Amino acid sequence: MALDFIALLPDEEIPETPAACEAASSSDTGEPAPDAWSITRAHFGADSLELALHEELLDFAEAFRPTRAESAMREAAVERVVSLLASLPSFASASVRPFGSYATGLCLPSSDVDLAVFGTGFESKVQQVAGLRQIEKALHRAGWRAEEVEVIGSAKVPIVKYVDGPSGLSVDLCLEQQDGIRSSALATKAARQFPPFRPLVLLLKRYLSSRGLNDTFTGGVGSFLLCLPSLPARLAGAAAPSAEGGRLLEPVGSCSSSRRCSSLRCTRPPSRRRLAAARIWAATCSTFSSSTASG
């Protein structure tokens, strides 16, 4: 079970719908932002490699934000599942809730869609596997194309996996599992409270995905496990943010207000404190790169 150890704000209700991968208007074409990693791109402190890295990470997160068309494609895939389940007597009163990267807004364009079905009455593992078999048969009969349909009943959490034909998205569906919903709520809360969280997680997810190390079934690192080391250490109950403490991937301007800035980009020249924070971030990236290369 995922524990809510983000204690800086009061507990929040678990969202019913995705936070989700909302599209940025600048990425409607599906293409990365122009000159996202160009050496001619102007940044504050352009003579600083650390600040250039900071800006490139933000550009990366923006360039890989799903477009409106991609978000609509995911929503349509979910709607097809909802309609399919409504046609089955055993699932007539069931509800479908997304979780994982689709629900938290931490998805890449290639991320799959994780769905949990509630209200089925299938509490035991044997019942859940039997219910997933019913869904498997329904997927084969569906009016839309479902490919590579497979029930994995031997897993700790039984699921049915398939590829949604119209969109090409991979979909994982489980029954009566609250843990995924809770872990998604935790990640959503972290992303809301700590602006650096999203760019860092997206970068690491892309890094692992490009090397085939993102599948837990084959010993890789899943999304929730990846999120944990990305959370600041102060989540475990440390003091609230202060104006004196430098932060990685936070506003790089010379803001001196004691109120925390909500933007990762700043319109003012960088201060020495921000430059120092950016250097620490660069050293962290260098250490991460060295350790993965040696491993």
Describe this structure in words.
There is one protein chain. With 295 residues, the chain is of the alpha+beta class. The protein contains eight helices and five strands; from the N terminus they run ααβαβαβββαααα. It has helices spanning 49-63, 68-86, 101-104, 125-141, 179-193, 197-210, 223-230, 272-294; strands at residues 95-99, 113-118, 146-152, 159-164, 169-175. Helix 1 packs across helix 6 and helix 6 (197-210) crosses helix 7. It starts with 48 loop residues before the first helix and ends with a helix.
Write a compact overview of the structure shown.
This protein is 39% helix and 11% strand.
The low-confidence parts are: 1-12, 23-30, 236-248, 251-262
Q: How large, in whole angstroms, is the Cα Rg? A: 21 Å
What gross morphology would you assign?
elongated
- Secondary-structure content class: alpha+beta
Percent helix range: 25-40%
Q: Count all strands and give the number.
A: 5
SSE order, one letter for each helix or strand: HHEHEHEEEHHHH
- Helical element count? 8
Major β-sheet annotation = 5 strands, mixed
Average pLDDT metric: 74
| Strand residue percentage | 5-15%
Distance, first to last CA: 30 Å
Task: Going across the biggest sheet, name each strand in turn.
Answer: 1-2-5-4-3
